[in-house]
Structures are given as C-alpha cells and as structure tokens.
Specification:
5-stranded parallel beta sheet, 6 helices, Rossmann fold
C-alpha cells in the first residue's frame, strides 16, 4: 500500500506531521546495511522527497567532518551526500571511536566527551544516551519528509538488547518498519534470518516488514 508523504511543505520545514521513517537492520555486522541505506536515501531523494539518514550510535575510527566542524560516522556523511543535504550531527548523535582493547572515545553531537571501556559505557552512559538519540531523531523528522534509519550489528544480540539504543528499541521510538538484511555470501543466510526472527520478541517480529538477501554473486 502506498504511503502518504508530505512533499509540499514550506521553506521553513514547518511540516504538518513528522517525517515518515524506514529502518534497515541486519542479521550480523557487514551484511551491507550502510550501502543499502545509502541507496534508499538516494532513491527517495531522486523521487523528490527531502530525505535524511540517521544512525543513533556508530562505531568508526574514521569520521566525516560536518559543515560546522563536528564529527559523525563516515557512513552517515556519505548517506547525507546521497540525499543531497548537508550532514549534521543529528544524523549520528553518538560516535564511538575505538582507542584500544574494549575501549572507545565517546563523541556526542560531534564533540569528544570522554573515553569509556565497554562495561562502563553500557552501565553508566547508555541511559543518558537514550534522550540524546531520541531528540536528534525528532529534530530530523521535523525537517524532512523521510528519515532512513540504520541499525548496528544484529538486533538479536541478547546480551545487548536490554539497553539497546540502535536497533529494535530505536525502531520502536521511531515508529519505523524494519527491513532485515542478510548476507548470502558468507553462507547460512536462511538460518541467520530464521534465527534472528526466532530470538526477537513478538512485538519486534511484527515490526519486520520484509527481508533483503544481499551480496548475490552470479
């Protein structure tokens, strides 16, 4: 069924309703989420929709510098370019830059905050991060017609689900249907899809609108 999308908002971006959302998640890391998100951003932009990317938390040693000198993940910078819109920190409000074994520098809205080890970050900071990422997404949704969200890793990582800010909980906050991406090149693609769906909670499974089997060769 076609979705109603507002495309005739005034220049002030005072939209009559928040932007529509769509989220790309994967059965694992490196299944192609970033490229597929970029492709969808480009397609929506070419269709005349004001489009923005969003990834609440990204881990990347390299960063993309926004117009105002702030740091975000390279992938979100590339996705903003595909949308034809300037990159801003709301597109990637939390960037984790690895500094050593199980430790990262935490960059919040493009500005370094401090270094955390993995346990301290989960136990001490993630609760503070929740409103940060929610507010960043809300601002984007007031300025665009469509926001394409990207997850991280897998939504079925049971040791991370209770404090997740980047996969299914993020999809719930965004009201976003989810496309689940799996990589056939590494083998076990159907098992990875079935296993992921089996681990998800019933309300999370209901949010999955379809599957993409990626990296076919020949």
């Amino acid at each position: 069924m076609a979705r109603e999308v507002y495309i005739d908002a005034p220049d002030t971006f005072d939209l009559p309703r928040p932007a529509r959302t769509l989220m790309i998640q994967g059965t694992a890391s490196d299944v192609g989420k970033s490229i597929l998100t970029t492709a969808l951003c480009r397609i929506f932009a070419q269709d005349g929709l004001r489009t923005a990317p969003f990834k609440s938390q990204n881990m990347s040693l390299n960063s993309y510098v926004t117009w105002d000198g702030k740091e975000i993940g390279v992938a979100q910078g590339m996705q903003a370019d595909a949308c034809g819109t300037p990159a801003v920190t709301d597109m990637n409000p939390i960037l984790l830059k690895p500094t050593g074994h199980m430790a990262s520098q935490v960059v919040v809205h493009g500005v370094p905050l401090r270094d955390y080890d993995a346990r301290s970050y989960r136990e001490q900071y993630l609760s503070e991060a929740e409103p940060i990422v929610q507010e960043a997404l809300a601002r984007l949704r007031q300025c665009y017609d469509v926001v394409v969200l990207e997850g991280a890793g897998s939504p079925a990582e049971v040791n991370l689900k209770d404090r997740d800010i980047v996969n299914m909980r993020m999809a719930g906050w965004a009201g976003a249907p989810v496309l689940l991406v799996a990589d056939i090149d590494r083998g076990g693609v159907f098992a990875s899809i079935v296993g992921t769906m089996d681990i998800l909670e019933p309300h999370e499974r209901e949010r999955v609108a379809g599957f993409i089997i990626n990296k076919f060769r020949g």
